Amino acid sequence: MKPDIDTYREIIDTLTRNKSRSFLTGFGVFWGVFMLIALIGGGNGLKEMLQNNFAGFATNSAMVWAQPTTKAYKGLSKGRQWTMVYKDVERLKQHIPEIDKACPLLFSRGDNAVFEDRSASCSVRGTTPDYSSIAEPQMLYGRYLNEMDMTHNRKVCVIGRRIYNDLFPGGGDPCGKAIRVNNIYYNVVGVDCSMRNINIGGRAERAIVLPITVVQKAYNRGNSVDIIAVTARPGVTMSSLTDRMREVVARAHSVDPSDEQGVAIFNTEVMFMMLDNLFNGVNFLIWLVGIGTLLAGAIGVSNIMMVTVRERTTEIGIRRAIGATPSNILSQILAESIVLTAVAGMSGILFAVTILQMLELGTTTDGITAARFQVDFHTTISAAALLTILGGMAGLAPAWRAMSIKPVDAMRDE
After folding, report:
1. Among 57, 76, 141, 353, which one is most buried in terms of CB atoms within 10 A?
2. pTM over 0.70
3. Spatial distance between the Cα atoms of 400 and 72, rounded to a whole number of angstroms
4. 50: CB partners within 8 A, 6+ apart
């Protein structure tokens, strides 16, 4: 029997005959769908927020820096302070050909940047142009450092987003303007709007990036290096290079090559792997909880439909007596179950999308959305299809029972 207007009116009349029971039954499905969509959207947003903290940072990179030794070596006692030098960069490239980029870094914290009558606290970072391939900048204005800046010791700088907002609150392109950092003037050549939190030596939004040759002279650092940032060539895992890097640097400075504390190495590859494993587990739990809640709601629908069939035994018997076929009864009960489930489920989807949209607006700053908490179209369609299937399954047992009712038994029941 094909559904028509009368069929739908009858379904609506049946469901609204006991409004409280229909509402409470549908609420189980509503809450299950809401939980599933909200958890998926919230998980996506949380993942994107964490990924934004690492956005543009090379996944196959490592940071090497010096710490007090923890082992005696070649007559030198443990606890000895030592410093890496600029030549260590060339040593790493020469002895480990699998290394793609090796960039030295120098830092100075607690500095203050001044432009006209405005000032901003900042951290100074000296590096080379190659560092852009390790921590990719997001240039709002201008450019990043280049080789000419290094060769000619140009007093130029790239400022972070917060520095730009504090010194140039009116907006506009600041390139070409001079700011003062510790009594030295630097020409702004670019604005980096990166917001990631995985920053060595301070947050990128509060950093002023200078050519390392300028920092060496301005801060009297000589050939010392605070950190060496390294990336591996494509197809090479950074984990396979860390021990060799430690050995190359350690032997050049009379440090025990097995002293993992003396020559510290932070492998970002491990961190990104842990992050992926974390969200694989989170996604599994989201689907487990969401589908479990949906199934509980569907079971509730099935139980209520069974009660409804029992209450309508006489009505079903009369319909059978005047010519309704078993398939007519089956389709009627299944349609009621699917409609109840679909209406409650679509309401849950709509409510979840509204909450996720509000959450997304709450994380928007300066017109920039920190993360997208919405679910994609395919997920929503899949949820709707799942609802239809669950609605049919929920009504299957009651429909089978209704179909088996005989007119004589129904009249006797009356």
Report:
1. 57
2. no
3. 81
4. 275
